Amino acid sequence: MDRIPILKLGSALLVTIQVDMHDQLAMALEEDLTKKIVDTGASGVLIDISSLEIVDSFIGRMLDNIAAVSRMLDAETVVVGMRPAVAITLVELGLSLNGVRTALNVDRGMALIQRPDLRKEVAVDDDDA
Amino acid sequence: MDRIPILKLGSALLVTIQVDMHDQLAMALEEDLTKKIVDTGASGVLIDISSLEIVDSFIGRMLDNIAAVSRMLDAETVVVGMRPAVAITLVELGLSLNGVRTALNVDRGMALIQRPDLRKEVAVDDDDA
Fold first, then answer.
1. For testing the chain A interface, which of B4, B6, B9 should be mutated: the one with the most A CBs within 10 Å?
2. Of A127, B68, B101, B119, which has the fewest beta carbons less than 10 angstroms from its beta carbon?
């Protein structure tokens, strides 16, 4: 497996992270994603990390990178399915994923991408957290 | 990785096969899927195999099994993203995946699940093929 599949889902792209990420795989994913955002005109990117038991600084940086590049291409990135333990670890590590929006599950993430009015409310919630 | 994540997507469940399947993983997936169909009341299961370069009889049987069990639970199974080469190989091997519906991509698969009227048209097409 040298590529992570990117699924088109309405106006969004969906990536499910299932395997251990390493440099090359992360770079390939970023490249493929940017290409696919341009090709499809997607307005958002959903990254599901529900199967990740650990999110270290490498993955955190990758998510930040993807979000930053997607934003340049006018696509919102939403990380979905984060496990409670992962959230705790991220905060303990000081990795707050500032540039990345989160949602509990894919449905909520899709709602965020499709309804910009919801984005603002969530943005305010993020500030409180 | 001992579990393949199952994402809820509106009224459907989505599974992306990214890793090599083996007995235990396939059994775990079937179990998790049936449990999740019951828990969520999902009306369909989408299985994305776009990253699979080879679908052998083991995977074919797994897909058939999942479709048969899901049907018992009143959920339609649609395999999406099959590569052209995989389709050719499946036919050459005599594995026609009779019990499984297919769609080119996730969006079309979702349409199949959400609009039963489309299902029949496709069923007729399947008979012709």
1. B9
2. A127
B8 vs A106: CB contact, 8 Å cut-off? Answer: yes
Contact: B1, A16; criterion CB under 8 Å: no
pLDDT at A3: 86
Structure token digits, residue B121: 């048209």
Rounded Cα distance between A5 and A27, Å, is: 14
Asked whether the beta carbons of residue B16 and residue A19 sit closer than 8 angstroms, the reply is no
Record the pTM. Answer: 0.83
Question: Best interface-test mutation with A: which of B16, B25, B54, B106 has the largest number of A CBs within 10 A?
Answer: B16
A 10 A CB-CB count for A87 gives 14
Q: Give the domain ranges of chain A.
A: 6-128
Structural contact between residues A51 and A79, judged by C-beta atoms closer than 8 angstroms = no
Write the ipTM. 0.77
Our measurement of the distance from residue A85's CA atom to the centroid of its chain's CA atoms, rounded to an integer in Å, reads: 18
Distance, CA of B122 to CA of B101 (rounded, Å)? 8
Question: pLDDT value at position B94?
Answer: 85
What are the pLDDT digits (tens) for A65-83?
999 999 999 999 999 999 9
pLDDT in tens, B10-60: 999 999 999 888 889 999 999 999 999 999 999 999 999 999 998 888 898
